[in-house]
Amino acid sequence: MLMSRRAWGRGIAGLVVAAWATPVLAAQSQGPVLGWINDARRAHGLTSLLGDRSLSAAASEHSRAMAERGTLFYHADAKSLREGCDRLTQFEARADTLAGAYRAAMESAEHQRQVFGDYDHAGVGQARDASAVYVTWFFLRSATS
Predict the structure, then answer these.
(1) Which end of the chain, N or C, is less packed with Cβ atoms under 10 Å?
(2) CB under 8 A, 24+ apart: contacts of 104-111
(3) Which residues contact 47 (CB under 8 A, 6 or more apart)?
(4) Helix (H) or strand (E) segment spanning residue 127
């Protein structure tokens, strides 16, 4: 079935509006960041963190929300992630690159304490808008550890 020019034009206009309203160009879980974190942990004689799908999904969604708003903010619903764990921490960053976000974290004593802390699971999410990458990570220590 052929579409009229008017209907086609409305369809294209709708796509343009939808694209403008949603600035996030890409979002994904884990990426190389968890590998970098685990490399640093092993270099300090610590065990690697296990990737956790639910934490990664929450981190990806949070990164996407920050990219859509164009600002960093704390994950207000992190308490829901605490079920079945002894301890939970989180980190957010905005940088030009993933490596830049990781470097910024590793230059901070507070965030080094997270990376080298007594945690056993991690979830990392990232999203990019036209100008930056937004990264969220959650580390937890499971109650059974």
Answers:
(1) N
(2) 106/40
(3) 41, 120
(4) strand 121-128
Q: Is the pTM of this model over 0.70?
A: yes
**Identity at 114, one-letter amino acid code:** Q
Give the type of residue at 66.
M
User: Rounded to whole angstroms, how far apart are CA atoms 126 and 91?
Assistant: 12
Round to whole Å and give the CA distance between 43 and 91: 21
**Nearest-CA neighbor of 31 among 141, 140, 135, 139?**
135
Q: Which residue has the tokens 């600002």?
A: 71
Task: For the beta carbon of residue 74, count every other beta carbon within 10 angstroms.
Answer: 10
Least confident of 24-28, 54-58, 140-144: 24-28
DSSP E strand boundaries for 15-113: 26-29, 50-51, 85-95
